[in-house]
Amino acid sequence: MSGPNKDYDPVEVTPLKADEVERMRDEALAAVSGASDLEALKRVRLEHAGDRSPLALANREIGALPPQARKEAGQRVGQARGVIGQAIAERQAALEVEHEERMLAEETVDVSLPTTRRRRGSRHPLTLQSELIADLFVAMGYEIAEGPVVEAEWLNFDALNLGPDHPARTMQDTFWTEPADHHVVLRTQTSPVQARAMLTRNPPIYVVCPGRVFRTDEYDATHSPMFHQVEGLVVDEGITMAHLKGTLDHFASQLFGDGIDTRFRPSYFPFTEPSAEVDVRCFVCRGSGAGEGGDSCRTCRGEGWIEWGGCGVVNPRVLVSCGVDPDVYSGFAFGMGIDRSFMFRHNLEDLRPLFEGDVRFAAAFGSEI
Ligand code: DAH
Which cofactors does this gene product need (predicted)? Predict the structure, then answer.
């Protein structure tokens, strides 16, 4: 039986010689500091600190040494491996920091650079508002009626009981097309669509017509030669002012919020009798007229109510002009400014941005498609 080889000379086990361990250690340290990125360091770790690294293999030889030599050899190899492990950890930390900094620098996005991406278009806020109004009337069973913006004088005025002497027929308010004897105007109101609706349909008639209208107004913060109205007309048996009031209250609450109703003030329109101006309850102060901190409400200027449009019971003369028997049918009609409604809904002081086509204005009202 052979016992441990007492004569075994560790100096003869080459991988465990001090010089050799030192050489392996230095080679490993050189490789560690030469690793230029995390990938390279991974390879170095495998090669110089892995299970098959020269020092790991040398470590295995220790068992073959005589007991008195093992301790020293073990320390030598252990120390060398410790130093290498430490160097790898340090290099790893340094490379990670470097990597992160490089990524931050490389991936910086200059948000101020011009883009080649096309901006999405925006639908015009007035288009959206018109559609909203149309939708809420369609939900009540109304039809959307349309008429031309270049309209016959007769439909814009005469059929609506606006006699030739009515002030609205003077050259001041109306854009006339040439030649004048053709009696064609740019419609000054959406009301001619009432006449068209009655001339082309048999009662019962329930129509709304949002559309553009034209007047020779100066262009300023509250006037424009082109603006938008929505017209409503109902012709049926037994229609009264009460139906009109209920309809407009519903319209107001749908457009401005729950609990927002309307009030009527006596007025005159040639095409309705009786006629009323409609005010809508201020949806900010809800009719109190009070603003913040003792001031009056800014939206309605302390009135509690905002002027919204005109309305009334359709004048029997209009029914007759449009071929409807006033002994059988009655009706109501109303007309509101869409731009005005939009302005006070959004607290706009100036209506001009509505007509100037800046897409940023349209986008600001959340109208991206
Ligand atoms: N057409 C009127 C205007 O432009 C508004 C109007 C008032 C329309 C009363 C109506 C109505 O249908 O009944 O001032």
Answer: Mg(2+)
What confidence score (pLDDT) does residue 7 get?
Answer: 54
Are 185 and 153 in contact by the 8 Å Cβ rule? The answer is: yes
Residue 273 labelled as part of a binding site: yes
312: which strand partners? 275, 333
Average pLDDT over residues 184-194: 95
| Ligand 1 shell residues, CB under 6 Å | 189, 191, 231, 269, 271-272, 309-312, 333-335
**Whose CA is closest to atom 3 on ligand 1?**
189
3-state DSSP assignment of residue 157:
coil
> Could you tell me where the beta strands, DSSP code E, fall in the chain?
143-144, 150-152, 184-186, 205-214, 226-236, 262-269, 272-281, 305-314, 330-337
289-341 residue pLDDT tens: 998 888 999 888 899 999 999 999 999 999 999 999 999 999 999 999 999 99
Structure-block tokens of residue 68: 């008195």
For residue 95, what is the enclosing H or E element? helix 67-106
| pTM of structure | 0.69
For atom 8 of ligand 1, which residue has the closest CA? Answer: 335
The predicted pLDDT at position 168 comes to 65
pLDDT in tens, 126-160: 998 999 999 999 999 999 999 999 999 999 999 99
Residue 168 backbone class (left: φ over 0; alpha: ψ -120 to 50; beta: rest): alpha
pLDDT of amino acid 115: 82
Question: Cα separation of 153 and 155, whole Å?
Answer: 6
**CA–CA separation, 25 and 355 (whole Å):** 80
Burial of 82 (0-12, 13-18, 19+ CB in 10 A): exposed
How many angstroms separate the most distant Cα atoms in the chain? 140
Tokens 């027929």 correspond to 169
How is residue 101 written in tokens?
Answer: 């900094």
Residue 319, Cα to own-chain centre: how many angstroms?
45
Ligand 1 atom nearest to 194, measured from its CA: 12
Q: Which residues fall within 8 angstroms of residue 82, CB to CB, at 6 or more apart?
A: none
Q: How far, in Å, are 40, 54, 287 from residue 49 at the CA level?
A: 14, 8, 83
